[in-house]
Amino acid sequence: MTTAHTPNDRTPITWWACEARRLHRDHDEITAQFPGLVWNDAGAGTWEGRLPRWPFDRPEPEHLTTWIGDEGLLLRLEYSQAYPMVAPRLVPLDPLPEPFEWTQHRWHVNGDASLCLLRDDVWTGRESVVDLLLKAAGWRIEYALMKHQMIEQMTGSGIVTDHSLDHFLAQPLPPEDTTGHPELDTGGQDGPAC
Fold first, then answer.
1. Which terminus of the chain has a smaller tally of CB atoms within 10 A, N or C?
2. How confident is the model over 118-128, as pLDDT tens digits?
3. Secondary structure (DSSP) of 42-104
């Protein structure tokens, strides 16, 4: 006679128990390129910390620090137990997008305040998570340009590979606009969500 198992008899299995090589790959790649991120194995796992302000393969623009300060984006990368088939969430912690910026395509922020970084790309599970972290570092820079009303929407491919915004960062920050936020409530009318 066999004994029936109840749902309480099942021990949850983490994604890295099934994908140990992927965990080692992510760990090696992330610690090599982003040593400021710290791994936490609670739940499905997270990486948290500050990204470099300019981790790209071209010279840092002369006035970048006047636009974003001395440090890059503070974020938390959150895995789910469906990783690597489902991309991780990247949640900006500093700066933190304002609620009116969520779900507006031009800000590249999802409704849960995570970053929308795969708009023009597809996640198959084989990609490197470092590519998402690079895009997040670029999002921080484009976010500053949006906040200073230098651009009306973020680039489709991201500043990682798109050099078209570098000229702004080579110039000093313009005087602060004290007229307020013209886009406080667009109600998502500026295009589809990410």
1. N
2. 876 789 999 99
3. STT-EEEEE--S--SSSPPPTTHHHHH-SS--EEEEE--TTTTTSPPEEEEEESPPPGGGTT-
pLDDT in tens, 146-177: 999 999 999 988 899 888 999 999 999 887 76
**Exposure pattern of 95-118 as b/e (b: 16+ CB <10 Å)?**
eebeeebbbbbbbbbbeebbbbbe
What's the one-letter identity of residue 193?
A
Query: DSSP readout, 12-38?
Result: P--HHHH-HHHHHHHHHHHHHH-TTEE
193 vs 104: CA distance, rounded Å: 5
- Alpha carbons 143 and 190: distance in angstroms, whole number: 16
Instruction: Give me 6's structure tokens.
Output: 């109840």
Q: What is the end-to-end Cα distance of the chain in Å, rounded?
A: 54
Residues in the chain: 194
Residue 78 backbone class (left: φ over 0; alpha: ψ -120 to 50; beta: rest): beta
